[in-house]
Amino acid sequence: MNEFGNRLRKLREQREMTLRYLADRADLSYSFIASLEKGRYNPSRETICALAAALETDKNELLILAGYLPNETVDQAIASSKNKRQPKDLALENILRGQVSFNGIDLSDADKNALLAFMQTMFSLRK
Length: 127
Fold this sequence. Notes:
Distance between the termini: 45 Å
Shape: elongated
Oligomer: single chain
């Protein structure tokens, strides 16, 4: 089991929901939710948002546990990249200063630097 699966199960049980009831509320398969709880699959952002709405809980907590950036961080990055006073790569640099994970694994400083270099290369190719 993983952190996301453990938390999902705890939230479901705290609300006294069966797998089938949660599946109906989230418009997902109950066997898929059971697999998520057991850590067999990595959920998509859309799945996490559906589960959070059905459980009436904070989607950002679940996003972080699943290895995604929380929506506020994504929104901030988009807003700051549109801000004329701040270049696009600075917004990404700001995000990478904090703790960042992918698929539940924290990125090392070397990983963050490699990601930043990759993104800078991709943006330079767009010009």
